[in-house]
Each structure stands twice: as structure tokens, then as C-alpha cells.
Amino acid sequence: MLRAPALVRKAAARQVRDPVEQWMLRQPGPVRASYVAEVLEKGGDERLAEVWMLRQPEAVRESYINEVLVPGLPPKLRPRDG
Questions:
Q1: Contact call for residues 63 and 23 (beta carbons, < 8 A)
Q2: What value does the CA radius of gyration of the chain take, rounded to a whole number of Å?
Q3: Confidence of residue 31 (pLDDT cuts 50, 70, 90)
Q4: Of 42, 38, 41, which Cα lies nearest the Cα of 53?
Q5: Closest Cα to residue 54, out of 43, 72, 39?
Q6: Which of 20, 31, 34, 82 has the lowest tally of Cβ within 10 angstroms?
């Protein structure tokens, strides 16, 4: 699915419930291709995924934080804007 055309990926992103999967399906092609090569094609180990994320540019890491991690926190633990 990560290599599917944009129309297919966007439809899939609306259907999946896992925020991580939704986030990944919305990423640009080079980010998705990197994840496939560095994580999925090497077995998909959780530690590989963590290494991959830590090596991503700041913009990718920040989008993951803002779109996946922060919304998953209980409201009282979420950082305040501003």
C-alpha cells in the first residue's frame, strides 16, 4: 500500500484506524520509500522503525510528533500551544 498511487493511498488513509498507518500513508514518496527499504524489507522490527524515525529530517519527526504522538496523549498531558 505504501507504494500505491496517491488516490489509493489517500483512500486507504481514511479507512485505517491506526494513526501511525494514517500518518505513513500521507507521507511523500521518498519518505515512504525509505521506510519500505530500511524497515519493511529488513523484517519490520520495531527497533528498525525507531532507528529509521530518529534518522529522519526534523520536519518528518515533528509531523510524527504532532500528528501521531501528541493526539494520542490524554488531554491533560498534551502540550499547550503558544
A1: yes
A2: 14
A3: very high
A4: 38
A5: 39
A6: 82
